[in-house]
């Protein structure tokens, strides 16, 4: 009975992990540039003293769906979308270089260019981008070049201040950190700017989460969880019946 109970218990636990993953995807269905997490389960042998005669289920997050989300036109000067493959480069909270597809940018009161999550945007040289305030206008070119018009200057006095660092690593070499940013699997590794990556101005890339698919997966996992609980109850009843037979004997 213990084998059936152990299998059902571990299966139910991993079903809960799977539901958490899909619930997180569903919660980010409207998050700019979000990449859906993938989920899979497989059986694993439990190693310990003696032979590995016990098997348990394990839920994994093998990677993310890197397909592009729907592009939404906003017309805002500081909204950009990476066309095709490629990433915007930011600094995370720990000061490490990271990558994102969220192109909803803003300028803080000190003139630092940030994304909507407050991460500093990096320029080609690897340093945070500073916008000399006050300005009357800002433009971001298709190649990531940032030009500004100082306040009070004539319209033809646009000045280039920096260029967004756009990179194109192999997506298989990236992993998603807990903060939602992507980083190289090789610790400490960074990527050089790629001039071939282009931007679409005045637009944002939406999440690539399929809401219907996520709901279907959650319902399937919930039913599977209920089946595992029923199996645990059956194992308990069989154990009780075995104990009764032993007492009769």
Kindly describe this structure.
This is Flagellar basal-body rod protein FlgF. The chain is of the alpha+beta class and 249 residues long. It has 2 helices and 16 strands. The protein has helices spanning 2-27, 211-248; strands at residues 40-46, 54-60, 71-73, 80-83, 87-91, 97-100, 105-107, 113-115, 135-140, 145-150, 159-163, 166-167, 174-176, 182-184, 198-201, 203-205. The longest helix is centred in the last third of the chain and has 38 residues, at 211-248. The radius of gyration is 26 Å and the shape is elongated. The model has no long low-confidence stretch (mean pLDDT 89).
Question: Brief description of this entry?
Answer:
This protein is an alpha+beta fold. The protein has two helices and 16 strands. The longest helix is centred in the last third of the chain and has 38 residues, at 211-248.
With helices defined by DSSP (H or I, 4 residues minimum), what is the helix count? Answer: 2
Order of helices and strands: HEEEEEEEEEEEEEEEEH
The major sheet is characterized as: 3 strands, antiparallel
pLDDT under 50 segments (min length 5)? none
Subcellular location: Bacterial flagellum basal body
Family: Belongs to the flagella basal body rod proteins family.
Domain Flagellar hook protein FlgE/F/G-like D1: 82-148
Domain Flagellar basal-body/hook protein C-terminal: 201-245
